Amino acid sequence: MEAGVNVRRLHLDEGAVLEPRPAVVTVMGHVDHGKTSLLDALRLTSVAAKEAGGITQHLGAFVVSMPSGASITFLDTPGHAAFSAMRARGAAVTDIVVLVVAADDGVMPQTLEAISHAKAANVPIVVAINKCDKPSANPERVKIQLGSEGLLLEDMGGDVQVVEVSALGRTGLDKLEETLLFQAEMMELKARINGPAHAYVVEARLDRGRGPLATMIMQSGTLVSGQYVVVGAEWGRIRALRDMMGKVIEKAWPAMPVEIEGLRGLPMAGDDVIVVETEDRARMLSTGRKEKMERDRLRKAMEEKFEIPDASGEEGSERVEMPIIIKADVQGTAQAVTDSLKSLNSSQVSVNIIHIGVGAISQSDVDLAQACGACIVGFNIRSPSLPISLAAKQANIKIFEELEEAL
């Protein structure tokens, strides 16, 4: 079944009429170097944002429309690890990486990390030297540092373009957008417009009133409200399709960020989105994927259980197992927490993630924790209700509301 879906997708793309599409750009950089400020400033340059009086609804992506009619889709990923995790799962959604480096701080550890992630993904980099309005700014020093790290800028005879900006002062943004458009033109980005849609999830969350919601970037084809879709291992019928402003739309095209409502469960960032003809076909494909995921999970658990301990470990010593349930506000955060906890694995400790979920801690989470002898880690979610807290206390279950507490 799965192979059939992939073969049909290949046939759709082969010989199809390809049309130019906007570039999808991911902004990366060291913490406190102004990534968030730059994204906010770019949002405000969007013609659509100005017309609507600013964006109030947060999505994992947004579009900047130029006076010329061209546009760029910006992707706001929750950290470098999430970027690489999506690439590892085949979600090649990014065309260009904007590397933000503060003009006063210069190259820092996460700057190097971002460069490594972009190079590993074979994605071109455009450098944005931010905070150029500060008295201590030294853009030339930053360029030399980047060059010494193997990033050859145009100023030094290389092909990596660099733009000096100030997100807070709103200077250099036009030049940055022009540079990104030029880079996109050089790449000749095209996609199939007609036929069934193919997309990737960039964020997923649980809304109390609307249920599971998935923000995605369209890759090819046309997505239409009312269609049956399979998203990762979940399925549903699109009840509502919304653009970046939260406006209900009927159709979505390549490179467009959209949010879909109507899924039966919550997908994960990096999951692919495919359109199927009927509900039965959607159910069948979803069931097959879930069964495969469970088989893979069991196989991995068995491999970890019988893993040979490090030579440094004392003979006869056993690894202490830490069963953990993770709850967070959105999938991206949940994945980041999961990665942090898994990094604790050693010859003495084995972190066993029992369940990963989005939303408030529920009674079912407490029941599962009691059955498995697990603790619950909640991140960026509201405190559990009094009945839930009491039930957890009676069952001797620890609930951590900060990742540092659990660590």
TrEMBL record:
GO cellular component: mitochondrion
Record's protein name: Translation initiation factor IF-2, mitochondrial
Alphabetical list of InterPro entries matching this protein: EF-G-like_DII, IF2_II, P-loop_NTPase, Small_GTP-bd, T_Tr_GTP-bd_dom, TF_IF2_bacterial-like, TIF_IF2, TIF_IF2_dom3
Function of the molecule: One of the essential components for the initiation of protein synthesis. Protects formylmethionyl-tRNA from spontaneous hydrolysis and promotes its binding to the 30S ribosomal subunits. Also involved in the hydrolysis of GTP during the formation of the 70S ribosomal complex.
Record keyword Nucleotide-binding present: yes
Organism: Acorus calamus (Sweet flag)
Cellular localisation: Mitochondrion
UniProt keyword annotation of Mitochondrion present: yes
GO MF entry, a single one: translation initiation factor activity
Gene3D superfamilies xrefs: P-loop containing nucleotide triphosphate hydrolases, Translation factors, Translation initiation factor IF- 2, domain 3
Main location, first listed in the record: mitochondrion
CDD domains per UniProt: IF2_eIF5B (cd01887), IF2_mtIF2_II (cd03702)
Residues of the Tr-type G domain: 20-190
Protein family membership: Belongs to the TRAFAC class translation factor GTPase superfamily. Classic translation factor GTPase family. IF-2 subfamily.
Highest taxon listed in the record's lineage: Eukaryota
Keywords: GTP-binding, Initiation factor, Mitochondrion, Nucleotide-binding, Protein biosynthesis, Transit peptide
